[in-house]
UniProtKB/TrEMBL annotation:
A Pfam short name: Inositol_P
EC code(s) of this entry: 3.1.3.25
Known catalytic reactions: a myo-inositol phosphate + H2O = myo-inositol + phosphate
Record-stated family: Belongs to the inositol monophosphatase superfamily.
Official protein name in the record: Inositol-1-monophosphatase
Cofactor(s) this protein requires: Mg(2+)
Keywords noted in UniProt: Hydrolase, Magnesium, Metal-binding
Family annotation (SUPFAM superfamilies): Carbohydrate phosphatase
Length: 276
């Protein structure tokens, strides 16, 4: 597990160091559980918005492990988790947790899934950790202190022209939304190098941060999908947002190298990527 103390900061914030250490430890424990404890007959435990929006028993086990571990160390903190963890807390700190980002990939045995943990202080994300165990990678960021992958600083990719940009996206679970998203892809694809669909928003955001993608966009993300990844992308020097002038949100999340972002965000707005 990377040591948060190696990060340079003129005036370290002890709270941020504490939150980072807890996020790293919790993500490491959850990633180990998910990687080593996946049953051979893993099946769907429940569905949410549609029959293809699934929850497995391991999603539930991972979220419980994370919330129990953090709660033991910081019992006054709040939680917002994808699988139902929710409490306001009294400390001003809230943990935003996706216990398995990329559940369908995990269900099918594909490697692109992650554990995503962000810590917010007074409503602002200050720490983000995304563990991708099948790649042996842990991304981390502290607001104002840069982004790191396995302890090494990372930076966004130099921006190419939009026509040479590799862009990732994701699709929702509702039929009407998927149809609208397909129309956006149809219009966008001829204007970029290519489009990828990896299946994990957290990983896509981190891949923008470390230069493996030029940009990423998606409609329909929830806070647990993007809280850690957006902070990591921001701290790696990428630009993030939603519709022009707005932050990343359920309506639309965009992250890209600065030069690509300036072209991609208004284009997505014109194409209606923000509505069904």
């Amino acid at each position: 597990m990377p040591d948060p103390q190696h990060l340079d900061q003129p005036h370290p914030d002890p709270l941020h160091d504490e939150l980072l250490a807890l996020a790293l430890a919790a993500a490491d424990r959850a990633a180990t559980l998910l990687r080593d404890g996946r049953p051979a007959d893993l099946g769907v435990a429940a569905t949410k918005t549609s029959p293809i929006d699934v929850v497995t028993e391991m999603d539930l086990a991972s979220e419980k492990l994370i919330t129990d571990f953090i709660g033991e160390h910081r019992p006054a903190d709040g939680f917002l988790g994808e699988e139902g963890a929710g409490s306001p807390g009294t400390s001003g700190v809230r943990w935003v947790i996706d216990p398995v980002d990329g559940t369908v990939n995990y269900l099918y045995g594909l490697p692109s899934w992650a554990v995503s943990i962000a810590a917010e202080k007074d409503g602002e994300a200050v720490v983000g950790v995304v563990a991708v165990p099948m790649r042996g990678e842990t991304f981390q960021a502290v607001r104002g202190r840069g982004a790191h992958l396995n302890g090494e600083p990372i930076r966004h990719r130099p921006a190419p022209p939009l026509a040479q940009a590799l862009i990732a996206t994701g699709f929702g679970y509702l039929t009407e939304r998927r149809a609208a998203q397909a129309e956006v892809v149809r219009a966008l694809l001829p204007q970029v190098r290519d489009i990828r669909r990896g299946g994990s928003a957290a990983i896509d955001l981190c891949d923008v941060a470390c230069g493996r993608l030029d940009g990423y966009y998606e409609r329909g993300l929830n806070p647990w999908d993007h809280a850690a990844g957006v902070l990591i992308a921001d701290e790696a020097g990428a630009l993030t947002g939603g519709r022009p002038g707005l932050p990343a949100a359920h309506e639309l999340t965009v992250a890209a190298s600065p030069g690509v972002f300036g072209a991609l965000q208004p284009l997505l707005d014109d194409l209606g990527a923000w509505h069904d």
